[in-house]
């Protein structure tokens, strides 16, 4: 029998966690959210940072996916506040998430939830995973990176005012380097 830990009620859905997978059942009035989540997951399947898509049902609006187990960003931030994690560690985490945002920008999938990412970024044993894509917008010029940056700056300002500008600087440099790398990747192609 399911206990409360195996069932999550979201705004648009109920997520049921079983032994080997998670199933997100989207409320019937949110069909477009179902499509958004399914398309985003499908398009991002080659990347390790999304749950594996195991199946979907357009009649019942269910999406069966890999179960993601780990600790979420909220827990990580709480540990940081208790001085159990270093600033450097948090920064390195943000950089990885930032890279994920960058990939999604290149794929032109705008998740639109990076301003409240606490429960959607999960640290598993192997890697960082991102869940909840039901607000995704496709082929848009809106940028995940920019939305996440504004979250980070707000966060940093809130917790540690002195670090704000250093952090801003570091992230903008990192962002530019990523763009350079990606562009040179194309220039170097032999055809
Ligand atoms: N693939 C998954 N593996 C494990 N837990 C998940 C998974 N997908 C969702 N959850 C859990 O269900 C909660 C609600 O899921 P979410 O996709 O955010 O629903 P909604 O979009 O309706 O808010 C998440 O915060 C998470 O705890
Ligand atoms: Mg959602």
Task: Offer a quick outline of the entry.
This protein is α+β, with helices and mostly antiparallel strands. Helices cover 43% and strands 19% of the residues.
Written description of the protein model:
- The chain is α+β, with helices and mostly antiparallel strands and 191 residues long.
- It has 2 domains: 4-66, Phosphorylase Kinase, domain 1; 71-187, Orthogonal Bundle (Transferase(Phosphotransferase), domain 1).
- The protein has 5 helices and 10 strands.
- It has helices spanning 31-43, 73-81, 87-106, 144-159, 164-187, and strands at residues 7-9, 13-17, 21-26, 53-57, 62-66, 71-72, 109-110, 121-123, 128-130, 137-138.
- The strands form 3 sheets. The chain has a 5-stranded antiparallel sheet, covered by helices on one side. Strands 6-8-9 form a 3-stranded antiparallel sheet.
- Helix 3 runs antiparallel to helix 4, helix 3 packs across helix 5 (164-187) and helix 4 packs antiparallel against helix 5 (164-187).
- Residues 186-191 have low confidence and may be disordered.
Bound molecules: adenosine-5'-diphosphate, magnesium ion
The ordered H/E elements are EEEHEEEHHEEEEHH
Question: How helix-rich are the residues, as a percent range?
Answer: 40-55%
Distance between the termini: 58 Å
Strand line-up in the sheet with most strands: 1-2-3-5-4
Secondary-structure content class? alpha+beta
Can you tell me the CATH class of the largest domain?
Mainly Alpha
Number of strands: 10
Q: Outline the biggest β-sheet.
A: 5 strands, antiparallel
Number of domains: 2
CATH topology of the largest domain: Transferase(Phosphotransferase), domain 1
Uncertain residue ranges: 186-191
């Amino acid at each position: 029998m399911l206990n409360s830990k195996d069932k999550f009620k979201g705004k648009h859905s109920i997520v049921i966690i079983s032994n080997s997978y998670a199933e997100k059942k989207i409320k019937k009035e949110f069909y477009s959210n179902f499509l958004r989540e399914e398309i985003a997951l499908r398009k991002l399947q080659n990347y390790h940072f999304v749950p594996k898509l195991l199946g979907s049902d357009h009649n019942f609006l269910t999406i069966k996916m890999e179960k993601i187990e780990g600790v979420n960003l909220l827990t990580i931030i709480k540990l940081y506040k208790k001085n159990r994690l270093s600033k450097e560690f948090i920064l390195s985490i943000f950089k990885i998430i930032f890279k994920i945002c960058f990939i999604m920008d290149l794929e032109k999938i705008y998740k639109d939830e990076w301003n409240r990412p606490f429960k959607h970024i999960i640290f598993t044993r192997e890697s960082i995973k991102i869940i909840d894509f039901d607000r995704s917008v496709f082929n848009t010029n809106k940028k995940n990176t920019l939305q996440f940056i504004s979250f980070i700056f707000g966060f940093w300002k809130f917790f540690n005012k002195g670090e704000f500008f250093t952090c801003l600087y570091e992230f903008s440099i990192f962002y530019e380097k990523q763009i350079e790398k990606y562009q040179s990747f194309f220039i170097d192609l032999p055809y």
